[in-house]
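Blinded run. Sample ID left blank on purpose so nobody reads anything into the name before looking at the predicted structure. Input follows.
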Amino acid sequence: MRTALLALVCLSLIFATASAQGIVVPGDADGDMIVSDEELELAEQSYSEGKITSDELEEIKHIHEKYPITVTNSYGDTVTIYKPVNGIISTPSWSIEMLFILDALDKVVGVTSTQQEVFGWIPGMDSKSTVGAWNSIDYEKIIELNPDIVNTAFDQKDAMEHAGITFLRLSTRNWTTFETDLRCLGKVLEKEERAEEFLRWNGDYKSQLAEIVDNIPSENRLRVYGESNHHDLFAAAPNSGLHHAITSAGGINIGKDLGFESSFLDVDPEWILTEDPDAVIIAATMSEWAPGPALDYYPSDTTESLNQYLELTRNRPGIMNTDAANNGRIYLLHGYCSEGAPRGVIAAYYIAKWLYPEYLQDIDPNEIHEEYFEKWLGAPYQGIWAYPQES
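Blinded prediction complete.
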């Protein structure tokens, strides 16, 4: 029996990386995906007999000591990981930023063309295989790349698991669940310390802003209309990132009672006029609209396109004649700041600086953003992410 088990151990080592069907765990001889004490002893014997390498033995020891790992994501899904994750694909556009934060780009085996375009300035992104665009994912390509873990559309769960790929849903846009899912991903990738370090950094800035906002009298709080530049009159609902950024900055989102059907909902110009906001903040990438450099990671500081867009917005039905338009309080904030939870606190600082500059005289949101780029994204800071800037 022991001889037969030893033979199985050797076979499992040979075929673990070649199998495209099912999860094969190095050192697991009986197929339960766990390396037992006996299986570890047999692996050590295989090493002493020259049948496996020292690296293979160390991998088996590591799996024996640390795995399986069971995690629960923000959706309540419980997922078990049986071996180290060496390949991951996460197709929601914002989600890849969590992998940058965890310094895990080396584990990413595929990205969407959208992610590659949006985050092309991240070192190493240009060499990744692509799996379609954000709205036309090539699921066959994902299976071909054979990652250990995938985060993609939920209706693909069965297909991915049938291919031996662990399905792990992660939410990157929801402020209230982001910490849970970052910790979940950190544990799965053995990056727990990195995840906690980021959450401390993020939490410190959140606490600092909360203290500032607490000092703003309720009667001085400004009412804000938030909108996505996906199309006109697409208002920020209470489950949007922009709503969370506005409220964290001490503003009052006039769309707070719109409902939770979607992050943004269509409204009428008359509704905005009736609400008469003090400020307007538009979550924008501008890439489809602007004829030249706009909000994004551009090496230029050209603002002509942004000024044109602000002028058009100021004269739009529903916004024209509001206090916001009359007082020149219309602002543009990059959607990857406002709608992605990793940079949500930075979005809140930009908004607070716009709404209450007297309370943030010694704080420059760009400096916080620059720190985020260098410390967590591993890229130099450049571009225009919020406009206009408060001095």
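Unblinding after everyone has recorded impressions. DSSP finds 16 helices and 14 strands in the chain.
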